[in-house]
């Protein structure tokens, strides 16, 4: 299967439109080595023709125009290779772009019950899209790791687990964690046997998740923050990474320590916040990741498994 990174940035993307953190302002000044990033999404295909889209970022239309794989084929006057959409959670940076895809309704959409609640109540896009050709055809994801297949995408086998994370800031249950607010997904190519572990929002990694990661070939995981106090450090906010549901790379039990346990897996950080020093390709933090064989996802990155 082919994994195409459509958007590797966290909420706001990089550079963020109103941000003067060192990265965003240095990018604009041309100081340091940076690459712009759109907001968090990947797509997966077994045959290069039919794609499963993970999340619909606010940058969806830009991502479609930057990636011919996502553009219409010659099958009719209206066409798309996007066969189904699967939501990792109900964050704005993961969902808003569904509004931009309204002309293609009804879409096949997978999400957990908790994300469905947010997307019909707190941010009711599933409800309002009903006025566009019926809106969405929703299918509920279980969170116990049971294998399932998507009829529109033969050749893929998926498993979903709830992870420690946070419902979005707008969610009625932001401070009342439920199973399924955030998930990790393992996507397997049935023919090649290749398995991707995808978890762009992750607050901690327990033994249950580690076993699933060990059983995967590539780990594409939360790369939001370098330090727990990153938002405070740059005067961007008051919250710690942990308050926002993101495990920082550094510190005890941080993502670098977690990933050190996995020797054979390819390791890729994704959903990178614009404040994260690893975005500067000439930074010591980026050199440290390089020395540990931890990659930093970029828009347009392709992984074959
Ligand atoms: C997050 O990743 O924590 C969210 O995208 C935050 C937000 O929605 O602003
Ligand atoms: Mn986010
Ligand atoms: Zn910034």
Describe it for me?
It is a single chain. By secondary structure, the chain is an alpha/beta fold. It has one domain (2-304): Ribonuclease Z/Hydroxyacylglutathione hydrolase-like (Metallo-beta-lactamase, Chain A), CATH 3.60.15.10. Helices cover 19% and strands 22% of the residues. The chain has helices at 22-29, 60-66, 92-95, 113-120, 125-128, 207-214, 230-233, 255-260, 284-291, and strands at 2-7, 41-45, 51-54, 82-86, 107-112, 136-141, 156-162, 183-189, 195-199, 218-222, 266-270, 294-296, 302-304. Strands 6-5-4-3-2-1-13 form a 7-stranded mixed β-sheet. The protein has a 6-stranded mixed β-sheet with strand order 7-8-9-10-11-12. Helix 6 (207-214) links the parallel strand 9 (195-199) and strand 10. It binds D-malate (MLT), manganese (II) ion and zinc ion.
Helices and strands in order:
Blueprint: E1 2-7, H1 22-29, E2 41-45, E3 51-54, H2 60-66, E4 82-86, H3 92-95, E5 107-112, H4 113-120, H5 125-128, E6 136-141, E7 156-162, E8 183-189, E9 195-199, H6 207-214, E10 218-222, H7 230-233, H8 255-260, E11 266-270, H9 284-291, E12 294-296, E13 302-304
The structure holds D-malate, manganese (II) ion and zinc ion.
D-malate binds next to helix 3.
């Amino acid at each position: 299967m082919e994994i195409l990174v459509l958007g590797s940035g966290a909420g706001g993307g990089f550079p963020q439109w109103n941000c003067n953190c060192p990265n965003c302002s240095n990018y604009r000044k041309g100081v340091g080595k940076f690459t712009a990033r759109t907001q968090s999404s990947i797509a997966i295909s077994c045959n290069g023709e039919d794609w499963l889209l993970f999340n619909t970022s606010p940058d969806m239309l830009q991502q479609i125009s930057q990636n011919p794989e996502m553009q219409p084929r010659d099958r009719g006057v209206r066409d798309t290779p996007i066969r189904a959409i699967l939501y990792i959670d109900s964050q704005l940076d993961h969902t808003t772009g569904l509004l931009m895809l309204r002309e293609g309704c009804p879409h096949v959409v997978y999400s957990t019950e908790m994300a469905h609640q947010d997307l019909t109540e707190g941010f009711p896009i599933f409800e309002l899209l009903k006025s566009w050709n019926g809106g969405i055809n929703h299918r509920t994801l279980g969170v116990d790791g049971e294998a399932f297949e998507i009829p529109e995408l033969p050749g893929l086998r998926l498993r979903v687990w709830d992870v420690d994370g946070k419902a979005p800031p707008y969610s009625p249950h932001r401070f009342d964690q439920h199973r399924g607010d955030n998930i990790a997904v393992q996507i397997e190519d049935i023919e090649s046997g290749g398995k991707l572990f995808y978890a762009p929002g992750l607050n901690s990694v327990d033994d249950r998740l580690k076993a699933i990661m060990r059983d995967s070939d590539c780990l594409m995981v939360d790369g939001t923050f370098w330090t727990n106090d990153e938002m405070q450090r740059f005067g961007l906010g008051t919250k710690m990474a942990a308050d926002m549901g993101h495990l920082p790379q550094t510190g005890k039990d941080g993502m670098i320590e977690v990933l050190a346990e996995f020797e054979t897996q390819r390791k890729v950080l994704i959903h990178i916040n614009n404040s994260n020093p690893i975005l500067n390709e000439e930074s010591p933090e980026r050199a440290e990741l390089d020395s540990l064989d931890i990659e930093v996802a970029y828009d347009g990155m392709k992984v074959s498994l």
